[in-house]
Amino acid sequence: MRLSGKRGDLFGGSRHWIKGENVSLFCSCFVIALWVGILYFNSLGNQFTNWDDGMIYQNSTIRDLSWKGIKRIFTHEKAYTYQPVRMLSYAIDYKFWKLNPTGYRITNILFYILTCIIIFNTLKLLSRHLRSNAPPNSHGRVALGGALLFAVHPVHVEAVTWLAARKEVLQGIFFFLAFYLYLKGREEEGRKNFFYLAFVLLSFLLAVLSKPSAIVFPAIILIYEISLRKNKWIDFVKKHWIFIVVSLSISVLFTSILMKVMWDAGGIKPYRGGTFFNNMIISFYVFVYNIKLLFFTINYSAAYTIPVSNPILSFWTIGLIGTTFLLLGLSLWSLKRTKVFFFSFFFFFITLLPYLNIIPISTLLADRYVFIPSFSSCFLLGIAFNKFYGLNYQRFSENFFKLLSVTLLIFLLIGYSSMTIRQNRVWKNSYTLWADAVEKYPESNTANALMGVVYMDWRMDEKAKTYLEKAIQILPYDYQSRNNLGIVYGNLGQYEKGLKELITTIKLRPDDDHYKINLAVLYQKQGEYKKSEGLFRFLLSKDQKNAILHYRIGQLYKEMGRYENAVSEMTQAMELAPHIINPYEELGNLYLSKLKDLEKAKYYYGKGIGAAPKAISRVETLRWMIQDLEAFR
Fold first, then answer.
1. What is the per-residue pLDDT for 230?
2. Which residues are CB-contacts of 591 (< 8 A; sequence separation ≥ 6)?
3. pLDDT at 469 over 70
4. At a CB cut-off of 8 Å and minimum separation 6, what does 246 contact?
5. What is the pLDDT of residues 185-207, one digit of tens each?
6. What is the model's pTM?
7. Which of 487, 493, 443, 490 is nearest to 467 (CA)?
8. 612-623 as b/e, with b when 16 or more CB fall inside 10 Å?
9. What is the pLDDT of residues 572-593, one digit of tens each?
10. With b meaning 16 or more CB within 10 Å and e meaning fewer, what string describes 58-91?
């Protein structure tokens, strides 16, 4: 699988040339790493956002790095995403950093630096293979320019600064490593070629285990081979059919897993626009707006809205469809003249394919979705700057275009860098993130829904209600916002409205018992104790070892005055979750205020201190309670 006549030209020569090449490689990688480090330094003080809660802050899975815990990480659970490499990375972070967000951010930045360095090396090989007639010294310029543009592009802030989006940079590391190893393997024959392809498959598997959308990798290999060989790519497939079959098997397997996970978790949504035809039309909008994200967006956001024409068949819609097919036609035509545009267009299209909403998902447009696809645009820009660098006209001095091209590249890098630094500040905390998103895209369901969650956390229920009502007005099947709105209505004493929202939530998600717990709690607030108890008992019959259920029904019994039942349920909750402070504290309060047993109250307060010593504020409260009881005695 050797590229005839290339290896000797590129790697032959003196030791001095090889040494110079290594120095150049080191310097390029150092510049990339330093620039990224400076660029994302101001994100290190950012807090967790409410987008990180379920994945990191409240995730018990990442708190066990034993073999048993690792086995749990790699075991798929129904209705949960299957991204074990990401989870394993969080578990390692938790081992060292616990819940200090700075440590997680350092890891994200290091992963991003590694991704950019791999992209630099990949671009260098790709330029050499697809631009075989170009001067040999141009490949390094294309690679460095493209890798720096990738490193500083503000569209990547979400993937790097949002901790729950670590899947993007992890996928990037292994996806581009697999592609790099594939390109290297093409220069080898025999056993070396076999080993390269084996490591390609391993890297591909790790990419899929980081984020399942990497399943498109075999199609990238096919597009590359078509770009390189045009009509002779079938010969390659015949010669390497084992590699093709194994890679396609990985794709098919994880495609089925992805579809099942999305179906179980409610990730597959109704057709946008109500019909399959309208949904397909909207996919063209999504494609063009992703191009806009890369080239024509100044203010990036954690949430976007795409203005779709109404009626959907309009001149604007026809224009977007026409633009898509024009780009497709140009890329097919370009294969006769240049391999670069053909490869770049189809790389962008194929890696974006999982996000085009052909199968409708919850989010139409997001910065993180173009993390991998943006590679192709950076490749083209790197080539464009190199072309400009090589211009030579008699009217101008020899170095005029060289200096001008470097100046323009630096100007673009500085512009992108300032936008990236500014966007890092937006991700400072949940409030700054969603206040920015609501301001820029007030009709975004995601922005309104999560702004509502911020106000819920602050116990500002009236404010939360405003944003949550807007969220479900925009997207009526948003069951999470309906659930949150039901809780808010309950807090405000608007019980009928709360019941309506929670019952609707359960209809939308009948298999998720979490929402039924919220309904039982609302019945309790309403004073409908029998309904609340009946629902709790029904849920307990399905899951006797659920500590939360025992704790909740214990609180219900305390409110009903059934103190012995309350003690029994709280004790079971304590035994099932021995490191959670709530049952101990509640038992202490129960013995102190209702059962008038001061010694048992002190005993359970003390047990709570020992069970969760890191819950500092709660522990301090219990210490004061014990001291007061000692003084009272």
1. 65
2. 597, 598, 600, 601, 604
3. yes
4. 201
5. 877 766 777 788 899 999 999 99
6. 0.87
7. 443
8. beebeebbeebe
9. 999 998 888 899 999 999 998 9
10. ebebbebeeeebeebbeeeeeeebbbbbbbbbbb
SS3 string, 189-254, reads CHHHHHHHHHHHHHHHHHHHHHCHHHHHHHHHHHHHHHHHHHHHHHHHHHHCHHHHHHHHHHHHHH
Inform me whether the pLDDT recorded for 73 exceeds 60: yes
Whether residue 294 contacts residue 377, with contact meaning beta carbons closer than 8 Å, is answered with yes
Three-state secondary structure readout of 542-599? HCCCCHHHHHHHHHHHHHHCCHHHHHHHHHHHHHHCCCCCHHHHHHHHHHHHCCCCHH
**Chain centroid, CA 554 distance in Å:** 38
| pLDDT tens digit sequence for 514-548 | 899 999 999 999 999 999 999 999 999 998 999 99
Confidence at residue 190, expressed as pLDDT on a 0 to 100 scale: 66
Q: What average pLDDT does the chain have?
A: 89
Which pair of structure tokens corresponds to residue 279?
């949904």
Residue whose token pair is 């026809």: 318
CA angle 582, 588, 589 (to 5 degrees): 90
H or E element, residue 625: helix 616-632
For residue 423, count other CB atoms closer than 10 A to its CB.
Answer: 22
pLDDT of 13-36, one tens digit each?
445 545 667 778 888 999 999 999
Span 474-501, mean pLDDT? Answer: 95
Q: What are phi and psi of 545, to 5 degrees?
A: -100, 20
Report residue 61 as tokens: 């899975």
Backbone angles phi, psi at 51, to 5 degrees: -80, -15
Quote the tokens at residue 48. Answer: 């967790």
If you ran DSSP here, which 8-state letter would residue 54 be given? I
Q: How far is CA 323 from CA 341, 408, 617, in A?
A: 16, 28, 58
Query: Which one-letter amino acid corresponds to residue 191?
Result: R
432's tokens: 């700054």
Backbone angles phi, psi at 269, to 5 degrees: -100, 170
